[in-house]
Amino acid sequence: MESIALLIGSSLNAGTVLAIASLGLLINEKAGIVNLGAEGMMLCAALAGFATVVHTGSTVAGFAAGMAAGAFLAALFGGLVIWLNTNQYATGLALSLFGAGFSAFAGSSYVQEKLPEQAQFVVPVLGDIPLVGPALFRHHPMVYICIGIVFGLIWFLYRTRAGLVLRSVGESPESAHALGYPVRRIRLMAVMAGGALCGLAGAYVSTIYTPLWVEGMIAGKGWIALALTTFATWRPARVLLGAYLFGGVTMLQFHLQGVGVNVPSQFLTMMPYVATIVVLVLISRNPTWIRINMPTSIGKPFYPGA
Question: Where found (predicted)?
Fold first, then answer.
């Protein structure tokens, strides 16, 4: 039972990274923009957050630096695809490659650096409950903040005028433009907000999840987050559930190794990516379901003068 509680706890921690990044990408796609640069943004944000904590000792400052780095790179991406109408997919891939190369170059001097010792967080009373406490109530506050972000995003998208405008831009930018809404500025703000969340996820990886810096440490989480938005059919609550599912698959490999399951480590390492492919294949068998939930103008450029 203790090992199960440990598996649940580690799954929540791993799923938090995917959930935060996926929520950022969901905001982008709700506005009609596909950003394939999540991996690169998360790498640069991970470096920015780690370096900030090394020099300041403040985790909060590290999170802020990661969000700023993600928002800045997203703004560059947005300027290219929204105003210059470059291809969204090619530009996103370029951003991902740039982030991987730049973070490796700029982070070479931080490989041996160590972060200050982190305090252990425990929810009073609840954290002392046997089994349940270690599984659910002994996590970094960001785990619970992530859940709050999900509910906040649900409220914003489906209960506010601004959320309705954002969704209308993703469904029909021409109609939104005809009604007088600044479609390009709305899309840019959505892209930057999504980039900030991707940056927060990257900073969380390097400062809390695995408190160190090594080249390529995001290890495909940005790509899994992209797949997760489709898996969740662009619904924030489903994003959270899917993130915990993928987090559980990721942690299962270590759990199986810990209990002595005689399976080659390479096969266990492949499990999260195999699960991603299987889920996408299963979803693609019902294209109507995706078409109903997918923003109509996703990935399509908008020309105000047309």
Answer: Cell membrane
